[in-house]
UniProtKB/TrEMBL annotation:
Organism: Streptomyces antimycoticus
Domain HTH cro/C1-type: 29-81
GO MF terms held by the record: DNA binding
One Pfam assignment: HTH_31
This protein's name: Transcriptional regulator
InterPro entries found in the cross-reference section: Cro/C1-type_HTH (IPR001387), Lambda_DNA-bd_dom_sf (IPR010982), MLTR_LBD (IPR041413)
Length: 293
């Protein structure tokens, strides 16, 4: 680990980001054009003290999940992301496992969807990021442990959900989701988090294990879901899955038919939901396991 070079790069990458690039208002009170340390720490889900120690070359080896969160918050390119992992003494996870890096291009695309609920998943159905409308729609999972931010783990272990479905709809979703996960396992046989998820799900959920043994393989692309929101009531939305080229991430966009009652309910939620956010944020909040080493 090259602590001094890592510290220098983190400071330089933070200084080059303007407040406007992450949705913050410009202010004449800023001493420098870049982001404040507190803002990057918030975006990465880290403590300010830990980020300060990293930027001063005083912290121990940051974990891969911390590095992934920093790469997303700082909007690093692929080459910069590889360099970040190298400086921290880790192999680039894209070489042996799933590529979970969010490129600046993906950030910019989703910046344009500020009024639309959007989440980002990896191919293991792990929640990587969610914008404020998605948090208002689905609930805030920022404080959840890593495993509980996996959508399939939540479903097959019976965790609370705002999605409502008939038994037939549940069964159809499970068949499609497990087939999709099996296809991902075939593409990424050496991805540790993915293989651990499958092993643990087979242990705790007989229903998952039964579906896993069916050996179906498919790619999950789109569906419709009815979501019962505690404030605005039910709405049925289209969930379209877009592939982020150059990575193993999926962008899931929730929309309603224009002019429908569902569209009006979603618009109402966007109005009241965003008012609950008291801290300025960018288009999305990253999800990470670590607040400190």
């Amino acid at each position: 680990m090259d602590r001094n070079e890592l510290a220098r790069c983190l400071r330089d990458w933070r200084d080059r980001l303007s407040p406007a690039s992450i949705g913050l208002p410009a202010s004449s009170l800023r001493r420098a054009p870049g982001l404040r340390r507190e803002e990057v720490a918030h975006l990465a889900g880290l403590s300010v003290d830990y980020l300060a120690r990293l930027e001063q070359g005083r912290a121990g080896n940051p974990s891969p999940s911390v590095l992934e969160a920093l790469a997303r918050a700082l909007r690093l390119t692929d080459d910069e992301n590889t360099h970040l992992f190298h400086l921290a003494g880790h192999a680039d996870p894209r070489i042996s496992g799933m590529n979970r890096h969010m490129t600046p291009g993906v950030h910019r695309i989703i910046d344009r969807l500020a009024d639309t609920p959007v989440i980002v998943l990896d191919e293991a159905w792990q929640l990587v990021a969610a914008n404020p409308p998605a948090t208002a729609l689905l609930g805030d999972m920022l404080g959840e442990p890593a495993r509980q931010r996996n959508l399939l783990w939540r479903h097959f272990t019976g965790m609370p959900s705002r999605v409502v479905a008939t038994p037939e709809e549940d069964a159809a979703f499970e068949r499609a989701a497990v087939a999709d996960l099996r296809a991902a396992a075939g593409r990424h046989p050496d991805d540790g988090p993915l293989q651990a998820l499958i092993t643990d799900l087979r242990k705790v959920s007989p229903r998952f294990d039964q579906r896993w043994q069916s050996a179906a393989v498919a790619r999950h692309m789109a569906t419709r879901k009815t979501i019962l929101h505690p404030q605005v009531g039910p709405m049925t939305l289209d969930c379209d899955v877009l592939t982020a080229e150059g990575s193993d991430l999926r962008v899931v966009v929730y929309t309603a038919e224009p002019g429908s009652s569902d569209a009006r309910t979603l618009a109402l939620l966007n109005t009241i939901g965003t008012q609950t956010f008291t801290t300025p944020t960018s288009w999305a909040q990253p999800f990470t396991d670590d607040a400190a080493p």
